C-alpha cells in the first residue's frame, strides 16, 4: 500500500527562520503529535488547525503511514486551542502546549470514536467532569435529594433548610477539592476551560481565587491569547466584585425622568436586571415584591433595570407583577447602556448594595435573598 500523500501547507513565517535563537525556540516549543486512524479516507487531508477566535485556520498537515498511524513533530508557538481535522469528516478539539499528545480516532464520522492521551489539560478537564458526575450521583447526594422531596411534599421548611445546609457543606468540600487540583496543576489552559464557564466554581463567590489564578497566567502564559482573554474577563469581573462600589446607572423611568442608581444612596438597594420576556425573572418577582413590602420602610429599595424593547411590554409587566419601585430602561434590549456597563449576558441578574453603594451580594434569589435581608434588618 502506498503512503497516503498530503500537501504541505505552511501559514506561518517562522518556518523560514534560520538563526540559532529561533532554532532553539522552535525546538523548545516542538511537541510530538501521534495516533491512529481507524477508517482513513482516500480523499482529503488530515489538517492540524489553530483557532483564531472562533475560526479554525489551517496550521500544519499530518502524514498518515500505511499502517494507519501518524507521528509528527509539530511546532506550537504558543499554547492555545487547536483541532485535528480528519478529511473534513471528524474534527477533534485539542489544547496544545508543551505535552506530547496522542489522538486516536475513527476518522470517518463526527460522532465517531476519539481518544486524547498525554495532555495534562485534557486529563484535568476529564478529571473534573468525572469528579462532578461522581459527586452528583453519590449515595449521600441522592439521599439528600430524596429527603428534600419528601420534606417539600410535607411543607416541612425546617427540614428543607437543614438539607440545603447539608448539601451546601458537601458541595463546598467538592469545590475545595477542585481548587486543590487547580493549585497542583499550575498555569494551564485546561484550568481556564473549567473556570471560564463558572459551572464548577461560582465566579462571584470565588472571585479571589479567579483573580489569583489570573495573576498566575499573566506571569506564566503571557503570550497565550486564550490565557490573556481569560485575564481580561477576570479583570472585568473585578469591577462588579463584592466589596466594589457599583458603577452608577442613569436611565429613563416610565415617565421619561432620568433616575440615577446613586440617587438611592443611604438605602440597601437591590439592582435587578429583568424583562417581561424573561420567565425566570417573572418567577422571582413575587419573592422580590414580598421582600420589598417587608423591608421597604426599614430602608430597602429596588432599582429595576428592564431589558425590554417595547415600552408597552415593560409597563404591562410592571403592573402585572406589582413592581412598584424605581424602574428604568432605555428599551435597547441587550444593547442597553446599563447591560453593557455591567457586562450582562444573561438575566435575571441582581446586585445587593449597602447604603454607600458597595456590592455586598450577587444574584441572591429566593431563600438566599430572604436570609440576607433578614440578617441585615434583624436589629433595625
UniProtKB/TrEMBL annotation:
InterPro entries (alphabetical): AhpC/TSA, DUF4369, Thioredoxin-like_sf, Thioredoxin_domain, Thioredoxin_ResA/DsbE_sf
Keywords noted in UniProt: Cytochrome c-type biogenesis, Disulfide bond, Redox-active center
Pfam families (alphabetical): AhpC-TSA, DUF4369
Domain Thioredoxin span(s) in chain numbering: 240-380
Primary subcellular site in the record, as a coarse category: other
GO molecular function, one term: oxidoreductase activity
PROSITE patterns (UniProt xref): THIOREDOXIN_2 (PS51352)
PANTHER family recorded: THIOL:DISULFIDE INTERCHANGE PROTEIN DSBE
Name of the molecule in the record: Thioredoxin family protein
Gene Ontology terms: biological process: cytochrome complex assembly
Disulfide bond recorded as keyword: yes
Cell compartments where the protein resides: Cell envelope
GO cellular component, one term: cell envelope
Amino acid at each position: 500500500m502506498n503512503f497516503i500523500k498530503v500537501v504541505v501547507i505552511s501559514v506561518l513565517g517562522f518556518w523560514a527562520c534560520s538563526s540559532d535563537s529561533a532554532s532553539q525556540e522552535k525546538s523548545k516549543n516542538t511537541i510530538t503529535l501521534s495516533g491512529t486512524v481507524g477508517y482513513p479516507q482516500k480523499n482529503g487531508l488530515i489538517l492540524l488547525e489553530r483557532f483564531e477566535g472562533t475560526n479554525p485556520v489551517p496550521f500544519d498537515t499530518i502524514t498518515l503511514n500505511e499502517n494507519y498511524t501518524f507521528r509528527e513533530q509539530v511546532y506550537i508557538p504558543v499554547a492555545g486551542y487547536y483541532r485535528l481535522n480528519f478529511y473534513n469528516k471528524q474534527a477533534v478539539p485539542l489544547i496544545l502546549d508543551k505535552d506530547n499528545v496522542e489522538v486516536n480516532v475513527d476518522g470517518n464520522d463526527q460522532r465517531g470514536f476519539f481518544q486524547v492521551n498525554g495532555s495534562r489539560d485534557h486529563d484535568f478537564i476529564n478529571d473534573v467532569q468525572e469528579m462532578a458526575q461522581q459527586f452528583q450521583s453519590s449515595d449521600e447526594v441522592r439521599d439528600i435529594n430524596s429527603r428534600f422531596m419528601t420534606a417539600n411534599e410535607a411543607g416541612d421548611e425546617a427540614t428543607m433548610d437543614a438539607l440545603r445546609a447539608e448539601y451546601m457543606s458537601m458541595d463546598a468540600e467538592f469545590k475545595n477539592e477542585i481548587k486543590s487540583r487547580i493549585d497542583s496543576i499550575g498555569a494551564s489552559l485546561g484550568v481556564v476551560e473549567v473556570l471560564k464557564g463558572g459551572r464548577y466554581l461560582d465566579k462571584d463567590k470565588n472571585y479571589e481565587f479567579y483573580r489569583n489564578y489570573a495573576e498566575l497566567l499573566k506571569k506564566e502564559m503571557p503570550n497565550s491569547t486564550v490565557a490573556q482573554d481569560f485575564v481580561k474577563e477576570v479583570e472585568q469581573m473585578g469591577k462588579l466584585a463584592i466589596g466594589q462600589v457599583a458603577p452608577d446607572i442613569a436611565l429613563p423611568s416610565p415617565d421619561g425622568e432620568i433616575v440615577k442608581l446613586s440617587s438611592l444612596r443611604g438605602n440597601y438597594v437591590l439592582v435587578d436586571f429583568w424583562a417581561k420576556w424573561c420567565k425566570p425573572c417573572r418567577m422571582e418577582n413575587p419573592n422580590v415584591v414580598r421582600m420589598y413590602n417587608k423591608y421597604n420602610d426599614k430602608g430597602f429599595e429596588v432599582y429595576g433595570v428592564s431589558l425590554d424593547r417595547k415600552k408597552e411590554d415593560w409597563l404591562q409587566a410592571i403592573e402585572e407583577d406589582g413592581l412598584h419601585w424605581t424602574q428604568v430602561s432605555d428599551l435597547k434590549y441587550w444593547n442597553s447602556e446599563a447591560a453593557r456597563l455591567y457586562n450582562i449576558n444573561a438575566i435575571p441578574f441582581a446586585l445587593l448594595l449597602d447604603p454607600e453603594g458597595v456590592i455586598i451580594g450577587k444574584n441572591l434569589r429566593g431563600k438566599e435573598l430572604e436570609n440576607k435581608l433578614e440578617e441585615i434588618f434583624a436589629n433595625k
